[in-house]
């Protein structure tokens, strides 16, 4: 059963319990007033908008302008929006309906029934303070397992996997186009991201839900983080809440109905020798409305070397698997991700080839 919140509200999953437990443990760390002060200073912005049709149909000059605009956005913002991306609006609306049906299943079903190969997660299991608590739930699904069969026997979810496959295929085409364009802008003519080993067996689709939060003034839907992949393609609804770090300030991203969000991940920053930026971002909680999003993560195989677009690289050689393990170790040990700085040449982190 959902846990009771203040004023008769409910929490499914039981995020209220996590919140109160951390509060009782003195896990606030001054977080409540700090977040309230930050929220007052947040400005809303329109991110750079890239028309992908110009890459496909424009003349050479238009293609060059579009490539330069995309590279500039990836370098300056780390985030940008794309339109005329080829992912049908009807398909995205169908995905939104399927997500709502999935997430509105009872908590015990989501947690224990093995939905989508047991990929369900909620909150932040490693949180030791309110600053580390994410007021959200998700299914983080490897693409290779989407075509599998559910073992929970829920007929009302029978159409979910087919829609997910369609969305993943459409978003992967966007990611391939963007990644290839950004790589070409750096003078890398080989086929990217295929050259990095990214394909339909290595990437992930993540379905997110951010429930309405009775403690929205001092709680985050998703704590600040960078993405540990090459590239992320995101479809969000119109509720809003995504914020990115720009010039040491949080900036709220204004949602656009027909645009997809694209952001650079840690691996692309490393591969580009820091030309493209993997930018910290977060999601703020909403007291009145739930929020849905779906994200496609472009990832290589775990044993794949991340590599570089050109030597010398500021980073030691490392594989995606090594990077993920170190991130998980840091989060478990410190409660937060450290990320790429561990892999800079001259860092004290052991276990990597020189």
From TrEMBL:
The entry's keywords: Dioxygenase, Iron, Metal-binding, Oxidoreductase
Catalyzed chemical reaction(s): gibberellin A1 + 2-oxoglutarate + O2 = gibberellin A8 + succinate + CO2
Pfam families: 2OG-FeII_Oxy, DIOX_N
InterPro entries reported in the protein's UniProt record: DIOX_N (IPR026992), IPNS-like_FE2OG_OXY (IPR044861), IPNS-like_sf (IPR027443), Iron_ascorbate_oxido_reductase (IPR050231), Oxoglu/Fe-dep_dioxygenase_dom (IPR005123)
GO MF, one example: metal ion binding
UniProt cofactor(s): Fe cation; L-ascorbate
Official protein name in the record: gibberellin 2beta-dioxygenase
Organism: Triticum aestivum (Wheat)
